[in-house]
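User: Can you help me understand a structure? I only have the sequence.
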Amino acid sequence: MEAMRAVVLVTCVISILSGVLDALKPNARFDRQLRLLLSAVFVLGILTPLSQGAAAFQPDWEPDTETAAVELEAAAAQATQKQAVANLEESLEAMLWQHGIADAQAEAEMYISGDNCIEIEQVTVYCTDPAAAEPLLTDCLGKEVKIHVETAS
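Assistant: Let's start by predicting it. Here is the structure, written out as tokens:
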């Protein structure tokens, strides 16, 4: 920002100086030399603040690795959990289909604990034969998991 202010200030001063020198020149004979001199001063006046600003410009190329690692770990955990839920639902539907319950739709609720263990909290299955599906799911998942079997509509 300071470099831009310096460039604007230099431009204004050189413009004023150019106008004053143009008014004071003795004759047209010095016109080319005066324009050359003012052009050189103008270019130097513009480039000097810009070069100082460019020399002081230091981009921050160092990534915040700690934050990036935490975000990456959280994204990986979320993707793992989402895929685990999808795999469990697909496996339960396939198991029920093998036992003659072809229209089953499973919904699972699970989480990954602090020591990276998958904990299944609840499974809800919608099918046309809930009486046959519930014992199969209990045998497969155990008694710790809450199992809800509802009639599909």
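Now, to help you interpret it: The chain has four helices and three strands. Residues 65-151 form a domain with the GMP Synthetase; Chain A, domain 3 fold (CATH 3.30.300). Let me know which part you'd like to focus on.
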